Amino acid sequence: MSNGTSGNPAVVGLAGFGLTTLMLQFHNLGFVPEIGAVVALGLVFGGVAQLIAGLQEKSMGNNFGYCAFTSYGAFWIALCLIWIFNKTGLFVTNDNEMGWFLVAWTLFSIILWVGSLRISKAMAFTFTTLVIGFVLLVLSKFVDHSLAFWAGVDLVACALGAWYMMAAAILNPLYGRTVLPVGKPVVGN
């Protein structure tokens, strides 16, 4: 079902980001007690699929998508390796190390958050909730473990924001009109 134009790699990147983030939060909120499915999804859909989507964004000239999808794809692969290393005892990561890992990703995400404000309200929402989620995760490692629950709640909203943009990118062109509006940029035109 092609219309003769190139596909939009963001739909796969957003799908991978949203699904993997949602599944991890189901684990963090206690709905899914084991982490095996999260690790598998994180490596394949959150990791590899996002890396591929990011590389395709590069060839389309989209630096934001290129940076976001390849970086968060690498994030998922790294996070899954941390969990695998912890499980096997190869390299064990403690709360302090994990906290600093999350600090670095929070700072990185703030840069993309600033960029998201120039894209759309839906993108700004997704990155705002992502940054809030990272901040809460950092605080859960250094200050109060119970904040991880609130990070999980916030990151469910983040995942659903990514899926909303994915759905808009699929449905709006299929219907030839705006079925799901993403909103104008928060900053500028």
Could you characterize the architecture of this molecule?
The protein is mainly alpha-helical and 189 residues long. It is 75% helix and 0% strand. It has one domain (10-175). The chain contains six helices and no strands. α1 (10-28) packs antiparallel against α2 (36-59). The longest helix has 29 residues, at 147-175. The chain is globular, with a radius of gyration of 17 Å. The relative contact order is 0.13.
Keywords:
189 residues; mainly alpha; 6 helices
Q: How is the main sheet built?
A: none
Q: Estimate the mean pLDDT confidence.
A: 95
Portion in strands:
under 5%
Portion in helices? over 70%
Order of helices and strands: HHHHHH
Give the uncertain stretches in residue-range form: none
Q: What's the total number of strands? A: 0
- Rg measurement, Å: 17 Å
Taken from the alpha-carbon principal axes, the silhouette is globular
**Cα-to-Cα separation, first versus last residue:** 33 Å
- List the total number of helices: 6
**Class computed from helices, strands and strand pairing:** mainly alpha
Tally of separate domains: 1
